[in-house]
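Worked example 3. Consider a protein that binds NDP.
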Amino acid sequence: MSTTIEKVSCLIIGSGPAGYTAAIYTSRANLTPLLYQGIQPGGQLTITTEVENYPGYPDGVQGPDMMVHFEKQAKRMGTDIRYGLATKVDFSNRPFKVWIDEEKEINADTVIIATGASAKWLGIESETRLNGHGVSACAVCDGFFFRGKEVAIVGAGDTAAEEAHYLSKLCTTVHMFVRRDQMRASKVMQDRVMNTPNIKMYFNTDTEEILGEKTVNGVRIKNNKTGETQEIPVSGFFVAIGHEPNSGIFKNFLETDETGYIKTVPGTSKTNVEGVFACGDVQDKNYRQAVTAAGSGCMAAIDAERFLAAHGH
Ligand code: NDP
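Given these inputs, the predicted complex is written out as structure tokens:
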């Protein structure tokens, strides 16, 4: 391991709306923050298309463009923005230690975690092999490619319901696979999919294999009650089975809930380690919006600033 150590007062990990907002606020408060972008600079919004619900864009904006705007604004305020992934932390003492790409060590008086969440996958071989070739975890991003075709979607929560409904407007038939005998989605969303004639529901259904060599041409499903299998020809396969917070590297130091979301003191961004703050989707499984993430990034910046002031910085 290299011995390069850099000392900063505020380290921000992550580059979605939460991370960049924290960067804008901490820069303007003269904390000279350092921000590491992680493996997906710009975060989940870089894999969406039109964003119509972010205030201040009356005509809507493309997700990737919006994240370029966030980055530019943070840069203009003076944030040191770098490409790199936090791979290990030690929060047992201050300054906190964070390793970037397994070699560079940062010592930080405060850390703002804004690492977001990632889509969950089924974990079958054909899903990995055909990812980007008909397999997608974002109907809104990729549905367009399957206009006028048959597709399948797996999942039973609000996201799956919303995405199935979105796909039903583009595709001839949407085959929806639910692993139990009921959906988890809210009643209103369930009613919406049930009442959409071209969404065909399959309950107690597991995906055995996504079929196709270079691109998806079908899916083999199995009824987990009867054991009966069936092949359905589809051109696209969408996975909408929830998200996972990117909190793995912090779990030895920070309290999380049973699904890995970092716990914060209600109404603040404070974690159980004084001086470490969390914002955005890594601590929010409820709202998960760009605007709520940005708001919580602002909270984290103000909490970090107050913490530093109280500790004589
Ligand atoms: P959820 O965790 O709510 O749902 C995930 C779904 O995927 C569950 O139905 C689960 O099945 C199913 N699932 C998980 N793993 C597998 C697997 N390996 N194979 C098959 N199915 C699987 O995630 P969502 O992303 O849907 O929603 C997250 C949160 O965001 C929720 O609180 C939701 O209400 C909210 N949300 C709200 C929206 C709105 O109000 N418009 C829109 C989108 C999200 P099982 O039920 O059997 O566990």
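Take a moment to read the result before moving on. Residues 4-118+244-310 form a domain with the FAD/NAD(P)-binding domain fold (CATH 3.50.50.60). The longest helix spans residues 290-310.
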